[in-house]
Amino acid sequence: xxxxxALSGTGVSPxxxxxxxxxxxxxxxxxxVGARHDGDAETERTRVHNALEQVAADLEARGETAGxxxxxVLSAQAMMARDPALAEVVxxxxxxxxxxxxxxxxxxxxxxxxxxxxxxxxxxxxxDLDDVRDRAIAVLTGQPMPGVPEGGGEPxxxxxxxxxxADTALLSREVVAAFVTEEGGPTSHTAILARxxxxxxxxxxxxxxxxxxxxxxxxxxxxxIVRADPPADEVDVARKADEARQAVLAAATGPGMTADGRPxxxxxxxxxxxxxxAALAAGAxxxxxxxxxxxFLDRAQAPGEEExxxxxxxxxxxxxxxxxxxxTLDAGADKPLAFLPPPGEEPNxxxxxxxxxMFRAHRQVMETQLRAxxxxxxxxxxxxxxxxxxxxxxxxxxxxxxxxxxxxxPEAGIMIEVPSAALRAADLAPAVDFFSIGTNDLxxxxxxxxxxxxxxxxLQDPWQPxxxxxxxxxxxxxxxxxKGCGVCGEAAADPLLACVLVGLGVTSLSMGAASLPAVRAAxxxxxxxxxxxxxxxxxxxxxxxxxxxxxxxxLPGLASLxx
Length: 563
Fold this sequence. Notes:
The protein is of the alpha/beta class and 563 residues long. The protein has 23 helices and 16 strands. It has helices at 41-66, 68-81, 84-95, 100-118, 120-124, 126-141, 165-168, 189-197, 232-251, 276-281, 305-317, 356-361, 363-378, 394-407, 419-423, 425-428, 439-447, 457-460, 465-480, 495-504, 516-524, 528-540, 544-554, and strands at 6-8, 10-13, 16-23, 156-160, 176-181, 201-203, 216-220, 225-228, 266-270, 286-291, 323-327, 383-388, 412-416, 434-437, 484-487, 508-511.
């Protein structure tokens, strides 16, 4: 491939990246079929357990260093390495004479097949399971650990079939110029972590791994265009445009607001206190989504009230007078917890006991979290709001609001991420104080499309007119009831779509800290009426691409942002 041709994927993290290609090799050779150990089963078991614990500890250490979203993801991977049920399968195979590395390969393979067959959230974790397996086998066989290659001084473009969270968590713009993967989607771990790092990224880009290592590549994280061996003048033009865009973003300061003065609070999505510096530096006006599950991952028992209180209080103290919206424990499906087992076998965990359903089944865990939140709110000046995930009915909304009031929490809301909740939002609005739309799950459930499956990325596109319709229904119901309606899904991070969301009636936007400047700049360049016209045009379109193009014609101020 030369400079006259280009590959096209899905741009998921805006910006321009240029550098030599480094291909990520993640495969560790499969251990020989039928491999046997030397007869000392107990020694072999100990060796395998030590290897799995080494992998788990390494993943945890990477997560602690990276913090935030990456910490939650890597902690979940560490749980996989420490899964006692998986260890039991390995031990049984070793007892029958199978060599440790082969036993690990077979056990993980069985689990992988089960996850893939389950579909939904669990199928999304199959790649993460492969990464844990390969790392354990590398330790057992003395092979190099899979991961990112060493750079040669200048930032490189990392190209891979897919990227495991451990491969990207500790990277920075100084090390990697851009990510390009053949698989993945707009809400994949690669996309989420790339945006958090501020690194341009393109996913679902067929043919990317066919680019020869060392080839200079120009990556446009907004348009999804990947060009190999580009002419020098093309690189210069792209870089100058990106520099101009960065200058525009730097000039956008202050609270979120449209050009005609309508306030649109811009909030940050965080995974814990480690994310606060980036959120504050980007000018976040508060927190729109505090994912509390990071406190609960990779533990044999739930954290106590004091530990939770300290974590919540630290975040509240960072925004005196501001608003902090905390999502209660979102367990189940892709976030299984050892101390919160589902009530029975779940053929499709994404449609099973998760979110509020799991919370209701474990009242002690719920009551402890709500007490800790109430104490933290009472000891600080921030305005605390608490919301429940996966609410589907009016009865569930009533139940959660009552539980919050009983705990002394005055502001209770729900996430709109189940189509039934969006469609009947007018019934749910009187029961709660606010809505927060989780566009990632709302799209997944509305289109029956796995959010991590690159081949279904078009159905996960937040520009789908049907998804915009659901958002409009929920936002309209909230406004009619005098309630706020925010968006905390990845859709809010797109400056063009952020303006459309405001036009649909959304009253606040929450996103990763790195996306805040571009959204702030986009809103400041357009009036409320322009946003409304863009929303109407997008909803009238027949496809996601048509919706995006139609909205762009109504929002001319985005040209300077090169989005």
